[in-house]
């Protein structure tokens, strides 16, 4: 199985609930290593650029308004099959559909405020990691 990197965002609702550490523990229990991390408050321009793929969707403005409503915690995660593994532990987009024990089932209040983001494919993961982190900010976790 290939070692991959994926992008995770702990969204404003989860940062406000003070559960960054709880979510980090789940990454670690799943064998995902944090190789870069930064807290920031996204600008509207950054949020619109990050979610550009959704710009024609009816929920786009609400999504951007939510993503800029408070600080987010952004991290690059590394591990075997990291993209799919990360999405597995996040659970379905709508927390009502998410498997029990997933991050969204346990902590998300609604499809609009759903606690976490994760890249959806290896190609988009590379783009999303590069959106936030330069090559010298990604640390080797080999020892
Ligand atoms: P994300 O990108 O945040 O990891 O979530 P996802 O892949 O599971 O879902 P995606 O289809 O990429 O949608 C991005 C975010 O937009 C909001 N959304 N709202 N009201 C709706 O029908 C709807 N659909 C999507 C969600 O907050 C979702 O995380
Ligand atoms: Mg998505």
Write a structural description:
The structure is a single chain. The chain has 143 residues and is an alpha+beta fold. The protein has one domain: 2-Layer Sandwich (Alpha-Beta Plaits). Helices cover 38% and strands 20% of the residues. The protein contains seven helices and four strands; from the N terminus they run βααβααβααβα. A four-stranded antiparallel sheet has the order 2-3-1-4. The longest helix has 11 residues, at 122-132. The protein is globular. The two termini are 19 Å apart. The mean pLDDT is 97. Bound molecules: ribavirin triphosphate and magnesium ion. Ribavirin triphosphate (RTP) binds next to β4.
Topology:
Elements: E1 3-10, H1 12-16, H2 20-29, E2 33-40, H3 44-50, H4 60-67, E3 72-80, H5 82-90, H6 103-107, E4 116-118, H7 122-132
Antiparallel strand pairs: 1-3, 1-4, 2-3
CATH class label: Alpha Beta
Bound molecules: ribavirin triphosphate, magnesium ion
| Radius of gyration, in angstroms, nearest whole number | 14 Å
In DSSP terms (H or I, runs of 4 or more residues), the helix count works out at 7
Termini separation: 19 Å
Low-confidence stretches: none
CATH topology: Alpha-Beta Plaits
Encode the helix/strand succession as letters: EHHEHHEHHEH
* Shape, per Cα inertia axes: globular
CATH architecture: 2-Layer Sandwich
Mean pLDDT: 97
How many DSSP-defined strands?
4
**Major sheet: size, sense and barrel closure?**
4 strands, antiparallel
Structurally, how many domains make up the residues?
A: 1
User: Can you give the helix content as a percent range?
Assistant: 25-40%
Main sheet strand line-up: 2-3-1-4
Note the beta-strand portion.
Answer: 15-25%
Class of secondary structure makeup: alpha+beta
């Amino acid at each position: 199985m290939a070692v991959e990197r994926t992008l995770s965002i702990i969204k404003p609702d989860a940062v406000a609930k003070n559960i960054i550490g709880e979510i980090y523990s789940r990454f670690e229990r799943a064998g995902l290593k944090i190789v870069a991390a930064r807290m920031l408050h996204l600008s509207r321009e950054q949020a619109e650029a990050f979610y550009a793929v959704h710009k024609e969707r009816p929920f786009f403005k609400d999504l951007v308004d939510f993503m800029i409503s408070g600080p987010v915690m952004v991290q690059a995660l590394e591990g075997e099959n990291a993209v799919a593994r990360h999405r597995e532990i996040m659970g379905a987009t709508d927390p009502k559909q998410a498997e029990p024990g997933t991050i969204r089932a346990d902590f998300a209040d609604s499809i609009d405020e759903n606690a976490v983001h994760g890249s959806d494919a290896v190609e988009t993961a590379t783009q999303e990691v590069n959106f936030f982190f330069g090559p010298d900010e990604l640390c080797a976790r080999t020892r």
